[in-house]
Amino acid sequence: MPTLQDVANLANVSTATVSRVLTGQTVHTENKEKVEKAIKELNYKPNTVARNLRRKKSNLIIALMPDVKHQFYSEIIRGIEEEALKAGYNVLIGSNTFESDQELRHFELLEGSQADGIIVGTSQVKQELLEEVSKRKPVVLVNGHLTGSNIPSISIDNERASYVMTKHLLQLQHKRIAHVMGPSNTMLARERLKGYKRALREAGVEFDKELVYEGDYFFHSGYEIGKRILTVQETVDAIYSTSDEMAIGIIRALTEKQIKIPQEISLVGFDDITISKYSYPSLTTIHHPRYEMGKKSFNLLLKLLNNKKIGKKHIFLEEDLVVRESCGAAQST
């Protein structure tokens, strides 16, 4: 297997000149042409691993998501991976599953220069930890942002999207709207609750904390909350679930008790995962541009890796209200 020295000997230049050509640095045109010719003749393959170690660069990034099996996050990961591949980066995918020890193992890869940067799907990762890591390695947040933080982020405006959904239900003449939120210690859940409250306030509908239920965004918690709502079903005319998975669980709970959706109670979700279109009834929801968020989060990280300036720190993508059967306003689309 030809070496760097073999290329230098054939081109009659120094190994330093060959290295400069390989790394794209400025080299006299004649020498550059000789080196490129020698590389081609010898079919030389540079040892990128060794070169990256010398430069303390791994061409590896970490995508740390709350649940990599969840369709919501798998679409974000797909966008990250496609853009990373184009830029010559590999992606190590990790799931924090709300366990701090597991998070720390991934952050240790950054500290040991085994990874160049990290994209974090915001969930319950401690802000202090992210702030500390961002002082030493590039960090980008996807699906949320941190108040008062300079860590760049890509997301939709969750408060606005939640306001739009709640307003839609109010326009359908619903007044008693149960709000099924995610973990209350996450900014994502708090922002969506804030949008719900704002829509109620503008419509002159009094906020009732007894209509707020805390889940975890997954099927089972929606199912359990659906059974709890059934105990006060006569006082609730609509349910706003802040994830489609919880909404599907709620559908199961209501269907078991033969409660008709939307005839007896309307139901809406959030995220527009694939199953929401094929559930029965099909689910009115907020379309979340997950794949695009993944792509843009990597490109933002790439700018940081290349020491380029970033304009807006917090980038909001547009969401869409997708009206289907479950709220009684339209047929399936």
Automatic annotation (TrEMBL):
UniProt xrefs under PROSITE patterns: HTH_LACI_1 (PS00356), HTH_LACI_2 (PS50932)
UniProt KW keywords: DNA-binding, Transcription, Transcription regulation
Keyword Transcription regulation recorded: yes
Residues of the HTH lacI-type domain: 2-55
Pfam families: LacI, Peripla_BP_1
Record has Transcription regulation as a keyword: yes
CDD domains assigned: HTH_LacI, PBP1_LacI-like
PANTHER family: HTH-TYPE TRANSCRIPTIONAL REGULATOR GALS, LACI-RELATED TRANSCRIPTIONAL REPRESSOR
Protein's name according to its UniProt entry: LacI family repressor for deo operon, udp, cdd, tsx, nupC, and nupG
